[in-house]
Design a protein that fits this description.
- By secondary structure, this protein is mainly α.
- It has one domain.
- It is 90% helix and 0% strand.
- Keywords: Membrane, Transmembrane, Transmembrane helix.
């Protein structure tokens, strides 16, 4: 069971990032004049998910 939790912890940031970026894209299609805001939001989501993924890798391989 511990291995399943660790694997899910590795997969979760990828799924969260994909869903968030998809929703930001849908929002951008309704607000085409907000390109810089959409790009900034995608950058923040990507950075957060990357940090989450790095922490998950650390937990998976070190502990």
């Amino acid at each position: 069971m511990k291995t399943l939790n660790k694997i899910l912890m590795l997969i979760a940031p990828i799924i969260v990032a994909a869903l968030a970026i998809f929703n930001i894209y849908r929002w951008y299609l309704q607000n085409l004049d907000q390109k810089s805001t959409a790009l900034f939001l995608v950058l923040i989501v990507t950075a957060g998910s990357l940090f989450w993924f790095v922490v998950a890798l650390f937990v998976f391989f070190i502990n």
